[in-house]
Fold:
Amino acid sequence: GCIDEHLYENIVKKLVERFRVKELGEINKYLGMEFSRKGYKLYISQSEYVDKILQDLNMININQVMIPQPD
Structure:
């Protein structure tokens, strides 16, 4: 949940006054990004998007290389 429910409600109220807003609940995916929450931290990943690009380019099974490469 939200740290400060009153703060959250005020932010939503101001957004509704200015924009057409539809509350859809907690975000999971948006524009090719995946979102997850652990405690108060929000994590953003694009691993599914990268996998799709690699699949489209037939590069899904290529060997990985660490960058920078060790000496």
